[in-house]
Amino acid sequence: MNRIRQLDAVRGLAVILVFVHNTDMYPSLHLGLIARNGWMGVDLFFVLSGFLITGILVDTKKSEGYLKNFYTRRCLRIWPLYYSAILFMFVAIPLLLPSEVQTVFGPRSSPWWAYPLFLQNFLIPVPTNATGLLGVTWSLAIEEQFYLVWPLVVRFCSEAQLRKIALVVIALSPALRLYLSLRGVNIYSNIFCRLDGLMAGALLALIVRSSKFVPSRFVTVAWITLIASSTLALIIDTLKERWIGFSFVALASVSFVYLALFSKQRWLKAILTNKVLAFTGLISYGIYLTEKIPLDVIKNFHLVDHPFLGFTLTATATYVIAVLSWILLEKPILGLGRFSHRKEALRNHPQIEIVDQS
Q1: What gap in Å lies between CA 256 and CA 6, rounded to an integer?
Q2: Inside any domain, residue 357
Q3: What pLDDT is stored for residue 30 in this prediction?
Q4: Is the bond into 111 cis (omega within 30 degrees of 0)?
């Protein structure tokens, strides 16, 4: 079964936003709006993850080996590249560059053992400021923590109960973020403060599996919601009120995913079926996790003084590393865990054709 190219393209757009945000050192390139707000691409990843993972879990909850198949697939997808990156940071760099030991193991990234356990979003004071590529791994920790709990919730709850849980989490998230932010908690990387994106995706997965679901009925609403929530998210971000801003970003993201799947607009379809953008989404995990390596090299060679050259080299090197990671590491290992659990899902829900591309 073929992948849904639109979802790969959405993932491609998300990783481009994050990449521009994380390489925001070239003001003369006039990427200000994207660079300032590119962090929102992570929320788009969360919504996609909630949507795809919930769909897989709901469709396979009664199958034999439900938990084993799911966790095997997740481990094969996430762990090889992740632990390669961890070994690179905590083993390879100290061996090859002894002078960088204090930087790698310093306060910004301490304790180091939080990373193998996916606990950096709790144990590192400001995980986004961690050394090198460690600074982006907080979102992977959130997803791994989500994977630990959500499959069990899906297994023992009905779809009606799951919808209620998702709605309650989405509704209560702003209040929880406000409460925690007033008490000095870093709400950016705290899983309890970022659950509404995952739950928005989960809710969408449940809605499209309803027997009464008609895709065309909500397309106009999705467009209005996307425009309004995106505008509000950008305005609120300038006010530094992310406790409520995250909610509008999640709302915009889930609206965009809906439109990617069901909108008939030709210009949108043309963008989301672009082969280069879809392939960028396919290798987005490698881009996201390794982008800081070329960036740090560029900084060491002082190429930040040459904006166009520095940005081009950073983007090209990141893309090449991600392609090699996909071809040599991710794709071969992922092939070991392919299962046929989607056939039953499509028989039960013929109105959608979502495949396991999470």
Answers
A1: 11
A2: no
A3: 61
A4: yes
Q: Is 355 inside a domain boundary?
A: no
The answer to whether residue 339 scores a pLDDT higher than 90 is: no
Q: Are 298 and 333 in contact (CB under 8 A)?
A: no
In this structure, are residues 170 and 196 in contact, taking their beta carbons and an 8 Å threshold?
A: yes
Inside any domain, residue 353: no
Among the listed residues 296, 280, 313, the one whose alpha carbon sits nearest the alpha carbon of residue 5: 280
56 vs 26: which has the higher pLDDT: 56
Amino acid at 193: C
Domain range for 88 is: 5-348
Q: Which two tokens stand for residue 53?
A: 């993972």
The pLDDT assigned to 350 comes to: 47
Hey, how many other C-beta atoms are within 10 angstroms of the C-beta on 146? 20
Cα gap 18→322, rounded to integer Å: 15
The tally of domains found in the chain comes to: 1
Would you say 213 and 264 are in contact if contact means Cβ atoms under 8 Å apart? no
CA-based nearest residue to 356, from 330, 338, 333: 338
User: Helices (DSSP H) in 23-65: which residue ranges?
Assistant: 32-37, 40-60
Q: 150: which 2 tokens? A: 């959500």
Q: Pseudo-torsion of CA 163, 169, 171, 173, nearest 10°?
A: -160
What is the tens place of the pLDDT at every residue in 304-322?
Answer: 677 788 888 999 999 999 9
- Give Cα 306 to chain centroid, integer Å: 31
Q: What is the DSSP string of 95-144?
A: HH-GGGHHHHTSGGG-SGGGTTTT-HHHHSSSGGGSSGGGGGTHHHHHHH
- Whole-structure pTM over 0.90, yes or no? yes
How far is Cα of residue 1 from the mean position of the Cα atoms in its chain? 23
* Domain assignment of residue 356, yes or no: no
Residue 115 and residue 86: Cα distance in Å, rounded? 7
Dist. CA 122–CA 296, nearest whole Å: 25
